[in-house]
Amino acid sequence: MDERIRAAKQGFEQSFASGTFYDRQTQDEQHLKRILTLLPFRSGMRILDLGTGTGYLAFPIAEMHPDITVTGLDIVEKALDLNREKAALERLSNLRFVTYDGTRLPFADGSFDLVISRYALHHFPDIRGSIAGISRVLTADGCFFLSDPAPNDGDPERFVDAFMQMKQDGHIRFYTGAEWDRLCGEQGMERIGGFESRIRFPRKYRDAYDALLKQYPDAVTESYEIRRSGDEILITEKVNNLLYQKRE
């Protein structure tokens, strides 16, 4: 396994085990509702939730649409075991979870009508290869939805990536909307919808964060509304929520 993928796996296994703190980092009921409203659901479709984690998207979709099959894919084995137990307890027979090595998607060409991914793609070391894999497993007119934080327009030196990498959980890079358009366009996918949101992200404070902040202009760091609160440091990030359709 790629060392960067291994770091992400270890970091997320620890984060999921932290329970409430991880939930505070990632859960947002209003954001979830906006995503579920945007997604082009239809009867009988097959959905892949890439980087499913605790099944934040997979569970509500499977519950709301019993005639849709949902596959949650991730590298975090312990979290998926818990997901399987939960799915069995809730009698969601249309929901399954699969683990993989974080590289090639373990599915045949054209296996899914929709691929979704929330707060995961910035951990993928080979993003072009990953987008190519997503396109490969989509049907000819399938759709791809991504939700992922983005750098601010005034952050050309990518302070935000350096900040996120301080956790050492396999963070690689955030991408702008234009970068996503190019990456997806290379694989025959065209943007057909989306919206922008924000996330207020807490991290456990360390002195190293202060040293990092001093390396960048105040205007850049202030644009992320970074604040210290007790033993936490919080950063506000823009989030791209983008829907693409395969055009071939």
Give a description of the structure.
- This protein has one domain (3-151, 171-198, 239-246): 3-Layer(aba) Sandwich (Rossmann fold), CATH 3.40.50.150.
- The chain is 37% helix and 28% strand.
- It contains ten helices and eight strands.
- The protein starts with a helix and ends with a strand.
- The protein is of the alpha/beta class and 248 residues long.
- Strand 2 (69-74), helix 5 (77-89) and strand 3 (95-99) form a beta-alpha-beta unit.
Order of helices and strands: HHHEHEHEEHEHHEHHEE
CATH topology, what is it called? Rossmann fold
Q: What's the number of structural domains?
A: 1
Tally of individual helices = 10
Oligomer: single chain
How far do the termini sit from each other?
33 Å
State the name of the first-level CATH class. Alpha Beta
Query: For this structure, what is the CATH homologous superfamily?
Result: Vaccinia Virus protein VP39
Low-confidence stretches: none
Supply database-style keywords.
single chain; 248 residues; alpha/beta; Rossmann fold; globular
